[in-house]
Amino acid sequence: MNERPSLSDAERLDRLRLIRSENVGPVTFRRLLDRFGTASAALRALPDLARHGGRRSVHVCSIAEAEAELEAIDRCGARLIIFGDDAYPALLAEIEDAPASLTVIGDVGLLRRASIAVVGSRNASLNGRRLAYDIARDIGIGGLVVVSGMARGIDAEAHRGELPNGTVAVLAGGVDVCYPLENAQLYARVREQGTLLSEVPPATAPQARHFPRRNRLISGLAQGVVVVEANLRSGSLITARMAAEQGREVFAVPGSPLDPRARGCNDLLRQGAILTESAADVLGQLRAPIAASRPLAQPAPLPGIDDAETDEARRVVAETLSPTPVAVDEIIRTCQLSPAQVSTILLEWELAGRLERHAGNKVSLIG
């Protein structure tokens, strides 16, 4: 397998600078590449875009800052995979908010293999833990990689069950940060036998806002998500919802209605999830595995927009926006402006910190 970067060193560095620049998230990163073709051109455009959006300045990540992150990655024994590299997981690249960068320790080849996510309650029952271990082990024997989030409970047992065949642990903090500390031994074993992955810089302590972002990576890497135990407020249900939005299969293990840890799974089953009692239910559903080695399409520059991106165009777009998310396609239809015009105006406001992006290509005003 060819794992060499397909981007030049300069473009890789510029893409890292772009995603680390102020108010540039994964969706904005893709929009900027689509609009300007290269990261270097997008970086040059950031100050003007933010100024048009009503902000005097925006912090653009410097070369020195990006090189310092690369040095930190080297020091912790990791490697950086940038969106556009040959080693970037093709299935993950298909989601609309695919991470612009991944920091990886361990076997990068596991990211190119077909995989299933196994997630569930941190406060899992003994039976739930044993079942998660068995399902993950048998999925590995069946030739698939198991992805999970290194949390206590179901996640940890899923990793342990799959260790002999390789497992991928997606971390909420830096790839060199073990969380929770009680999983230190498991972290060390996954580092040695599997793959640790994160989209945030090394040494980043996990924060509450990082966990939903991590969950979209767990589901985005996998062909489907198996939920073993989950209460109605479990983060595992967020992962299952993201999987459904990404077009992945959702599997759920049924449980007693008397056990709060089963209510989330039972609710998923009512919504159409696939009833799962063993790995055979998962492997039998995935008759045609999605190829995990398709080459990534490189973004093509959008045609430049003319001076029609005037104050009048911005005013028309502003009338369609509110704190309630609205689809970008609906904005285009309502305003009767070109997609390029609307895309640029939304980029301006996002870089100015006035706009937030949501799943399903929706946007809303901040504040």
Task: Describe, in plain words, how this protein is organized in 3D.
The protein is an alpha/beta fold and 367 residues long. The chain has three domains: 9-91, no CATH class; 108-285, Rossmann fold (3-Layer(aba) Sandwich), CATH 3.40.50.450; 311-365, Arc Repressor Mutant, subunit A (Orthogonal Bundle). 43% of the residues lie in helices and 13% in strands. It has 15 helices and twelve strands. The strands form two sheets. The chain has a nine-stranded mixed sheet with strand order 1-2-6-5-4-3-7-8-9, with helices on both faces. Strand 11 and strand 12 (362-365) form a beta hairpin. Helix 2 (26-36) packs across helix 3 and helix 6 (126-141) crosses helix 12 (279-285).
Q: Any descriptors?
A:
367 residues; alpha/beta; Rossmann fold; Arc Repressor Mutant, subunit A; 3 domains; 3-stranded antiparallel sheet; 12 strands; 43% helix; globular
Provide a quick synopsis of the model.
The protein is an alpha/beta fold. Helix content is 43%, strand content 13%.
Helical residues, percent: 40-55%
Number of domain modules: 3
The number of helical elements comes to 15
Biggest sheet character: 9 strands, mixed
How big a fraction of the residues is strand?
5-15%
Number of strands: 12
Helices and strands, in N-to-C order? HHHHEHEEHEHEHEHEHEHEHHEHHEE
Mean of residue pLDDT?
90
Q: Tell me, briefly, the overall form.
A: globular
| CATH level 3 topology of the largest domain | Rossmann fold
Low-pLDDT parts are 288-306
For the largest sheet, list the strands in their spatial order. 1-2-6-5-4-3-7-8-9
What's the CATH class label of the largest domain? Alpha Beta
Class by alpha and beta content: alpha/beta
